[in-house]
């Protein structure tokens, strides 16, 4: 008998699930989550981690594309340092370094070349060890660079191997600027999630408006290290200040007045190192909290919070390093729980309806 009951219960649960899934397809439980933030804040990195959490596999073509991009990222990063060295008038004193620098500076990928030649890779590896190049790197707050620069140079030997296949970490650290809008979909119980990722650079933002309708949650991503960095689009502009202005525009947009908003303060790993060397007052002159990470993070959070003009909007804040899956798992759980709580009524109603239907038409 007990066995029969449990079978029936199981069946009922399945029916609830099927019903809710169907409801999801009819847009009732179709949750659109929108990722916004300035360029390089880490939006696409969050998506990559979500794909990994939901076991959306990376096929061979994608892997090859990651491999090609990581090669391009590596060369670009060294070319950026060489150009910055010239602008900053940092002389390369070693003649061997000078020679290597000229070779790397003039190297260009042919259209169908996907890998840097081994000789270029070895030049880059040697250049990174050079003291003058390190002096340029020390002054990186004065020019634009990619955050994953050291990662590329430290792993270059592996990238140069004949049978190089990017690891999961390599894929996470590869930088590909998003243009346009990309949607990643997955199911979690009865909910069909659509996570919308957009390009964050200034010229991409005019497209954002097309994604503003019917958003169940807004995830605003900020690069914490940006307090001592300049922007790609405008090297005279501080990245954190740009992010704050952008957040002010987004969170006070009437279309998001009722939308649960999550502030993801990202790149905590870089921030923790940076705060030991550069005081936060460089970006916020009135800051007096010193190098204490907790105090500094709280201060930044308050700066964002203070941009919200309506008193009834709750801001959920998390401090994360999107490069680590566990951080995204944790924050995503918070997002999900909040959404389920917010939409509990719809969920409960749907569940009650199916139960009612079942009791009024007893099974044969
Ligand atoms: N060190 C570190 N690097 C990170 C972290 N999150 C992202 N990155 C790196 O930051 C770079 C930019 O990340 P993206 O995810 O491409 O940034 P985005 O916001 O999608 O940028 P756009 O597409 O231009 O809007 C990538 O090289 C990432 O590997 C982090 O937590 N720590
Ligand atoms: Mg992106």
From TrEMBL:
Complex formation: G proteins are composed of 3 units; alpha, beta and gamma. The alpha chain contains the guanine nucleotide binding site.
GO molecular function per UniProt: G protein-coupled chemorepellent receptor activity; G protein-coupled receptor binding; G-protein beta/gamma-subunit complex binding; GTP binding; GTPase activity; metal ion binding
The family this protein is said to belong to: Belongs to the G-alpha family.
Keywords: GTP-binding, Lipoprotein, Magnesium, Metal-binding, Myristate, Nucleotide-binding, Palmitate, Transducer
GO cellular component: cytoplasm; heterotrimeric G-protein complex
GO biological process, one term: positive regulation of cell-substrate adhesion
Organism per entry: Cavenderia fasciculata (Slime mold)
Domain of life: Eukaryota
Keyword Nucleotide-binding: yes
Binding site for Mg(2+): 44, 178
Gene3D superfamilies per the UniProt record, alphabetical: GI Alpha 1, domain 2-like, P-loop containing nucleotide triphosphate hydrolases
Record protein name field: G-protein subunit alpha 8
Positions with a binding annotation for GTP: 40-45, 197-201, 266-269, 322
InterPro entries on file: Gprotein_alpha_su, GproteinA_insert, P-loop_NTPase
């Amino acid at each position: 008998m007990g066995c029969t009951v449990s079978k029936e219960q199981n069946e009922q649960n399945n029916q609830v699930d099927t019903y809710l899934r169907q409801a999801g397809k009819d847009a009732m439980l179709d949750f659109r989550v929108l990722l916004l933030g300035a360029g390089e804040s880490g939006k696409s990195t969050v998506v990559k981690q979500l794909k990994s959490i939901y076991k959306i596999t990376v096929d061979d073509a994608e892997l090859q594309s990651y491999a090609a991009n990581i090669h391009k990222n590596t060369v670009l990063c060294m070319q950026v340092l060489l150009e910055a060295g010239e602008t900053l008038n940092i002389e390369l004193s070693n003649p061997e370094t000078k020679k290597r620098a000229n070779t790397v500076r003039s190297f260009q990928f042919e259209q169908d070349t996907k890998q840097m030649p081994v000789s270029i890779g070895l030049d880059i590896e040697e250049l990174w060890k050079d003291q003058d190049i390190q002096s340029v790197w020390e002054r990186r707050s004065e020019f634009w660079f990619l955050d994953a620069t050291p990662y590329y140079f430290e792993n270059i030997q592996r990238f140069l191997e004949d049978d190089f296949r990017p690891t999961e970490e390599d894929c996470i650290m590869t930088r590909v600027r998003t243009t346009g809008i990309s949607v990643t979909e997955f199911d979690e119980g009865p909910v069909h999630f659509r996570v919308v990722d957009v390009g964050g650079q200034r010229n991409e933002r005019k497209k954002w408006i097309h994604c503003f309708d019917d958003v169940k949650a807004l995830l605003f991503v900020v690069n914490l290290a940006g307090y001592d960095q300049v922007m790609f689009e405008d090297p005279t502009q501080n990245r954190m200040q740009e992010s704050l202005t952008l957040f002010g525009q987004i969170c006070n947009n009437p279309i998001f007045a009722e939308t649960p908003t999550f502030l993801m303060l990202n790149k905590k790993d870089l921030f923790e190192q940076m705060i030991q060397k550069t005081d936060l007052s460089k970006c916020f002159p009135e800051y007096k909290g010193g190098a204490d990470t907790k105090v500094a993070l709280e201060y930044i959070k308050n700066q964002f919070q203070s941009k919200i003009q309506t008193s009834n909007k709750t801001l959920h804040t998390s401090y994360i390093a999107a490069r680590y899956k566990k951080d995204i798992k944790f924050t995503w759980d918070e997002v999900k729980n909040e959404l389920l709580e917010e939409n509990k009524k719809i969920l409960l109603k749907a569940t009650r309806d199916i139960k009612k239907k079942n009791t009024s038409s007893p099974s044969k």
